[in-house]
Amino acid sequence: MGGLPSMMPRLRRGSARAGRIDRLGWRAGTCIDACGLRVGVRTNAPALLDRLEPHLPPGWRACASPLVDQIFSVWVGPGDARRPTRVYAGRSRRVRTANLARALAVLESEIRQSVAAGAARRTFVHAGVVGWRGRAIVIPGRSRSGKTTLVAELVKAGALYLSDEFAVLDGRGRVHPFAKPLSIRGASGCDRHAQSRCAEELGGSCATGPLPVGLVVLAEHSPGATWRPERLTVGQAVIEMLAHTVPARLRPEASLSSLERAAARATVLKGARGEARELAGHLLRSVEEMESVSRRGAGEGGTR
Amino acid sequence: MKPVARRDGLLIRELKDEMLVYARDEHRAHCLNRTAATVFRNADGTRTVSDLALLLAPQSDLPAAEAVVGETLARLAEAGLLQGGPAAAGWSRREVVRRVGIGAAILLPAVASVVAPTPAEAAVTCVSDCSQQKDGTACNCYGEPICDATCISGSCSAGGC
User: Fold this and answer.
1) Domain presence at residue A32
2) CB contact, 8 Å: A256 with chain B?
3) Which of A112, A88, A33, A35 is nearest to A66 (CA)?
4) Of A118, A137, A170, which residue is a domain's last?
5) What's the total number of domains in chain A?
6) I need a labelling partner for A280 at 20 to 30 A (CA). Which of A104, A135, A171, B99 fits?
7) Average pLDDT, chain A
8) pLDDT score at B142
9) Closest approach of chain B CAs to the CA of A169, in angstroms?
10) What is the pLDDT of residues B67-95, one digit of tens each?
11) CATH number, domain at A203?
């Protein structure tokens, strides 16, 4: 990673301009690369750059060139209600607020979503991901479907943490870490009581490299349910995961290819689940069984 | 009747025993099982239902296999993968089940479909702007989160962001 480079970003030739936003008097900027997408951030308040780093996408790298694919702009107001801080994605205003922390939270979310949609060499699937015995367990699902709770239980049980928001697939169907602190909601599912927890706080650690997908879990939480999943075919798995795939419409061919490669080597289970802790144990054992079968198949024998 | 499967604007991926079809105009993806894939692949306007039935199950009872082809065509038509739309099929499912019986049940077609999400629908954890969002989408004002609020008629139920 390293420090943020100080340079005013410019859009690549052919990119949509930001119109009058370009003339608001930007005084400082920086450029980063996240999953192959080049992102620029500019501001009228140079001191803002010192606060930017924690809000950048996991795995970002500094860019040497000011030419970028997308520009985000933060116009910092003096803090009064009449001239609030504004955040723009391109020419579109995303928030207008007197609260700078809130503006930075919006910027962070907008950049992450932009990377998820625009990273040409990666396919982002809305999912939680952990690693166990050299394989990834991918848990696709919508917001509030219990992904993070399940990821947290898996991490507490010793699994490596990769992400609680996106499974980042490459063209070979491997999943890359995209680890930001887990956002764990309160017992009522309430955002107001959400806490950011690092994997280390839960007794786990983060994966450092890509893993092949071993297990895909499509689990709907249903209180009291017993986990009796059905096993999906590769095609069914691709269809289920496509429903959570960010660039599905933008790059359907690449998305289908990545999903197919991921699903082809994985066991894909779908069903209703009860409590996350109970399911976490089942899932880890499933991966262990897969590992043992694959070892026997390869005739390796021995123990790790 | 010589059915014709749609070919224009489709992205097709052959899998082992299955086929994935993505319709670019509707942003709908379909997974066809072996039976549905066989009929879809061979419904090119030169083959009758009987021809397709023979391709599907050369050893089995022809009327039963024709019933399966009829059911498959109905499902392909529902998915928008048949030229001429639903009228081209014209078989009732009850009739198919009656004709096929348990013995040939393995031949029954399956077409699973999904509408591909927009990037915003797929990526969003909670939205800050309820305009153009479906009712029920979770809304959240980022640094000022709202408990259990959802988008309703373009506004956040807890008062908006």
Assistant:
1) yes
2) yes
3) A33
4) A118
5) 2
6) A171
7) 87
8) 44
9) 14
10) 889 889 999 999 999 987 554 445 566 66
11) 3.40.50.300
Tokens of A188: 């009522």
Q: Give residues with Cβ within 8 angstroms of A42, minimum separation 6.
A: A8, A9, A26, A28, A29, A30, A71, A72, A73, A74
- Complex ipTM: 0.82
Closest residue, chain A, to B125 (C-alpha): A143
Instruction: Give the A:B interface size as CB pairs under 8 Å.
Output: 134
Residue type, A216: V
Q: Which domain holds residue A279?
A: 123-298
Residue A252 is nearest to which of B18, B22, B120, comparing CB atoms? B22
pLDDT digits (tens, 9 = 90+) for B50-73: 999 999 887 767 778 888 898 899
| Residue A233 to residue B17, Cβ atoms within 8 A | yes
Residues A142 and A223 in one domain: yes
pLDDT at B145: 43
Do A284 and A143 belong to one domain?
Answer: yes
Query: Cβ of A190 and B147 within 8 Å?
Result: yes
According to the model, what pLDDT value does residue B124 have? 62
Same-domain check for residues A85 and A137? no
Mean pLDDT of chain B: 79
Q: Do B19 and A235 touch (CB under 8 A)?
A: yes
Are A180 and A37 part of one and the same domain? no
Decide if A252 and B126 are in contact by the 8 Å CB cutoff: no
Q: Which of A103, A109, A252 is opposite residue B116, by nearest beta carbon?
A: A252
Bridge partners (DSSP) listed for residue B158:
none
Regarding whether A157 and A274 lie in a shared domain, the answer is yes
Same domain for A226 and A251, yes or no, is yes
Q: Which residue has the tokens 């054992």?
A: A285
